[in-house]
Design brief:
Blueprint (H helix, E strand, L loop, with lengths): L1 H6 L10 H13 L7 H7 L6 H19 L45 H14 L4 H8 L5 H16 L18
Helix pairs in contact: 3-4, 5-6, 6-7
Length: 179
């Protein structure tokens, strides 16, 4: 089915209204992914839209989501809610609540950094330098946001500065340095 739409002549471009986007998203949620007539059924819920337009709109949506997930698109600061695994979240609202969370809603705990992520962080630190958290996040540790990288770096540098007292402390991922 997808091959048919890839080979079809491009449809005349008409901007999608917000109402159409909402109906499109609702159709995607309710219709099975692999239905042979999926795009015809999606278009049936969108007056004035063809199955070709629905399929192209879906492909554009998938491409946009991919760019966002890869960090290739600058997103608003309020989207950087994630914490770096230490239980402290980035606060991005003026009321002191983490961005995107309603009152009383439980915040999910962060995922600790793996040794592999830390080594990628060290490689990125060497390549892009101290303070370039966005590029380290974008090109070295792609699984973490710039905020998470900055927080991890802060803890790493504190741990390195206090290296003299390390013998009495438990081991940490921050003890790993470049060879």
């Amino acid at each position: 089915m997808d091959l048919y739409y890839q080979q079809a002549a491009p449809a005349a471009r008409r901007p999608w209204a917000k109402e159409e986007d909402k109906a499109f998203e609702a159709a995607l949620v309710t219709l099975p992914d692999h239905a042979p007539d999926r795009w015809e059924r999606v278009a049936a819920r969108l007056p004035g839209r063809t199955p070709q337009e629905a399929w192209e709109h879906y492909q554009a949506l998938v491409a946009d989501v991919d760019l966002i997930e890869r960090g290739a698109v600058d997103t608003p600061d309020c989207w950087d809610f994630d914490d770096d695994g230490d239980g402290r979240a980035t606060v991005a609202s003026s009321r002191g609540r983490p961005a995107g969370k309603a009152r009383g809603e439980e915040r999910r705990r962060g995922i600790p950094w793996s040794e592999e992520e830390h080594k990628l962080f060290l490689d990125g630190l060497e390549k892009y330098g101290r303070g370039d958290w966005r590029n380290i996040s974008r090109f070295a540790v792609r699984s973490r946001t710039p905020t998470q990288v900055a927080s991890h770096a802060q803890k790493y540098f504190i741990r390195q500065a206090n290296a003299a007292t390390r013998d009495s402390k438990r081991k940490s991922i921050h003890d790993i340095t470049t060879p």
